[in-house]
Amino acid sequence: MTDVDVAVESDLEENLTEADLEKAEKVFAKKVEIIGGPPPGPATLEAKDACAWFGDRLVLEGVDLVMPKGQVTALIGPSGCGKSTFLRLLNRMHELIPGAALDGEILLDGDDIYATGTRAQQVRMRIGMVFQKPNPFPAMTIRENVLAALKLARLKCSDKDTLVEQSLIRAGLWKEVRDRLDSPGGALSGGQQQRLCIARSLAVHPNVLLMDEPCSALDPTSTRRVEETIDELRGEVTVVIVTHNMQQAQRVSDLCAFFLAAENQPGVVVEQGPTDVMFSTPTDSRTLDYVQGRFG
Ligand SMILES: Nc1ncnc2c1ncn2[C@@H]1O[C@H](COP(=O)(O)OP(=O)(O)O)[C@@H](O)[C@H]1O
Ligand SMILES: [Mg+2]
Predict the structure, then answer these.
(1) Residue 49 in contact with residue 63, Cβ under 8 Å?
(2) Which ligand is nearest to the CA of 259?
(3) Residues lining ligand 2 (ion), CB within 5 A?
(4) Do 202 and 148 contact (CB within 8 A), yes or no?
(5) Could you report the per-residue pLDDT of 10-21, keeping only the tens digit for each?
(6) How far is the C-alpha of 81 from the C-alpha of 65, rounded, in Å?
(7) Residue-wise over 187-206: b if at least 16 C-beta within 10 A, else e?
(8) Ligand 1 pocket check for 45: Cβ under 6 Å
């Protein structure tokens, strides 16, 4: 362990004391009902022959990928190979970009999220997203930020205080903000803002959480906290995370998909599989070259 690691570790241990953990257990034991919210529990997400265009340019071709429920899937690959585009296909954000088109199917527990009659807003409630750059509502209070998605979707909640506390504990932010829930979200540090965004996404109890390079703007301590949060979400929420950090992919993911685009060609998935296999004995030599840092 390096000095930095040790400092981070002790800092993390300091974050929640035994008494805090005991109290957190009690808070989690309380059932909070969200009326009109997603069905409970994680869901399997599956892409079948997914393709994406910007104008007439095909940027992603024939992606078949199963992201099993409750597991963490990492999307890896060099810049520009379509990872973010793929993530946006998964919760119907791609269609918000003018000129963007898509083909193929995205199945959420077997149901196509693009089926006629399925509303994008409903899909986005079940499949939340956290972006590279933290985007809390800066003028809203911390508490209001956590409850923002609920309010937007006009969902009723049986116990808002408990929901706020549960969401902030799950995002690893509770102890730092519990005494200032009424201060603005914009006053937090970058790492805290990102965890606030995670808390906001978790508050509607999504079945899937998509994360697009969530730690790339964060310091090592905040990065560790976010990774801990991802680890704790395993089994509860399906996580799909884009990361350029190979150590992070190894630390947090169960499965990996390696995206690659040859020059002037659309991005494809070169290989996918259990993370340990992808990092030790992948089938494609390009996968090994990439995970060992020989390109990208
Ligand atoms: N809004 C957009 N309009 C046009 N082209 C885009 C847009 N967003 C991304 N692209 C292009 O699509 C390709 C895939 O981009 P992206 O999904 O962002 O890759 P990655 O996340 O792997 O870096 C790139 O060539 C990029 O330039
Ligand atoms: Mg990207």
Answers:
(1) yes
(2) 1
(3) 84
(4) no
(5) 445 456 688 888
(6) 16
(7) ebeebbbbbbbbbbbbbbbb
(8) no
At residue 56, does pLDDT exceed 60? yes
Token code pair at residue 270: 């070169």
Task: Provide the CA 50 distance to its chain's centre, in angstroms.
Answer: 20
Centre of ligand 2 from the C-alpha of residue 284, in Å: 23
> Does the CB atom of residue 83 touch ligand 1 within 6 A?
yes
Pick the closest to residue 43 from 198, 210, 237, 233 (CA basis): 237
Place of tokens 């965004």: 197
How far apart are the CA of 254 and the centre of ligand 1, in A?
26
CA distance 27 to 95: 39
> pLDDT at position 291, please?
97
**H or E segment to which residue 243 belongs:** none
Query: Residue 47: which pLDDT band, with cuts at 50, 70 and 90?
Result: very high
CA 80 to ligand 1 centroid distance, Å: 6
What's the Cα-to-Cα distance from 76 to each of 107, 142, 180, 276, rounded to whole Å? Answer: 21, 32, 37, 14
- Let me know: does 75 contact 246? Beta carbons within 8 Å: no
Cα-to-centroid distance, 77 and ligand 1 (Å)? 13
